[in-house]
Amino acid sequence: MEAKTFQQGIHPHYNKELTNQKPLHRAEDPEEVLIPIQQHIGAPAQLIVEVGDEVAVGEKIAEAGGFVSANIHSSVAGEVTAIEEKNEQVVVKIKNDGSTKQKTNLEAHDSLADVTSSDIRDIIQEAGIVGLGGATFPSHVKVSIPEDKNVDTVILNGAECEPYLTIDHRMMVEMAEKVLFGLEAIMKAADAQKGYIGIEVNKPDAIEKMREITSDQSNIEVVPLKVKYPQGGEKQLIESVLEKEVPSGGLPLDIGVVVNNIGTAVAITEAITEGKNLFERAVTVTGAVNNPQNLIAKVGTPIEELIEQCDGFKGQPGKVIMGGPMTGKAQNRLDNPITKGTSGILVLDEEETKDYSEAGPCIRCANCVDVCPINLVPTRLVNLVKEDMIEEAEEDGLMDCIECGSCSYVCPSNIELVQRIKLGKEKLRAKKREQ
């Protein structure tokens, strides 16, 4: 079968060879974790612990603050030593006592026959599961299908198109059964009849393993995808796999599709079969470190501890990014903790760090237009934002931008296109709040 793809996009240096053959292994637990109570899109969770409380691994420390929100659980056993503000949000500091004492409100189920669609949604919600590809949208919301919608298809995103990151690749190779079970659980929760797993062809071992594990599943298909960024974007993945287009301003749900990440599927499996809440996740630690690795790490672990477990920096670091180089966020402190949305920790050396202070004027080359997977005109959006013409920018598709960074990557003038578009979105949201 010919590998599928979408229109436009780019081919950055992927650098996945640093970790794509390195198996997942468990990181050492930190002596102390710092757990933010908002690790998801939507309303912040509401604290239910106080300083001095003793908590167990997996115990709930904050309850969802609404339907579009997520529970937060402790990743270690120990004492709550502080509740403070860090990076403009509330965090819970817990001192690890080294014990393995666990607590959960979930029961373990042997098979999907033991749970209803409603049960699955409730389990996902109680476990605090969110999109682990980085979007962190509460997963129970995605599979709570409105009465006026009809979902017939679930797509698992195994593209992992972001450079450097390899955790989804390793999970498909090492945890194929959990990936498949999670897909089937999502399909049951959404009442979908057809499932797809889209995987870029630079992961042949993952394609082989997932085809092997799904060989007797007539309603599940593994779809090879061309290696291109952002192949893993929801709309691009749907275009590649189904040759369907999500309408401007719309959601995959509008065309009967639910898209989930590989890691999310594994977390759903563990919640159903083990009664496990989401308090740890797989993280690729890579780039300019001496021993790049794929680690399963506790939420709340400081970045610096994981870098140290990879034998420290290799040379002089220029930038430390939480996530990948295209969509990740540069960090101003190494004691910042990983969260549910942390797919990677990337260290770039000084030579790899792009200096936007040297940005020049737009030369009207149209490179950004040629690569935009949404068919926007990024420079026009940026100019409208600069002139504070926010409504006009909205009409031109400001909110359709998926912030993939393709335009910034190809800009010969080093213009901060994505950053300025993000600023425009914030201005638009602020204006709507005022209204």
UniProtKB/TrEMBL annotation:
UniProt membrane topology term: Peripheral membrane protein
Cofactor: [4Fe-4S] cluster
EC number: 7.-.-.-
Residues that, per the record, bind [4Fe-4S] cluster 1: 362, 365, 368, 411
Record carries keyword Zinc: no
Chain positions recorded as [4Fe-4S] cluster 2 binding sites: 372, 401, 404, 407
Location relative to the cell: Cell membrane
Residue ranges constituting the 4Fe-4S ferredoxin-type domain according to the UniProt record: 350-382, 391-420
GO molecular function terms attached to this record: 4 iron, 4 sulfur cluster binding; electron transfer activity; metal ion binding
PANTHER family: ION-TRANSLOCATING OXIDOREDUCTASE COMPLEX SUBUNIT C (PTHR43034)
Family: Belongs to the 4Fe4S bacterial-type ferredoxin family. RnfC subfamily.
Protein name: Ion-translocating oxidoreductase complex subunit C
Taxonomic lineage: Bacteria, Bacillati, Bacillota, Clostridia, Halanaerobiales
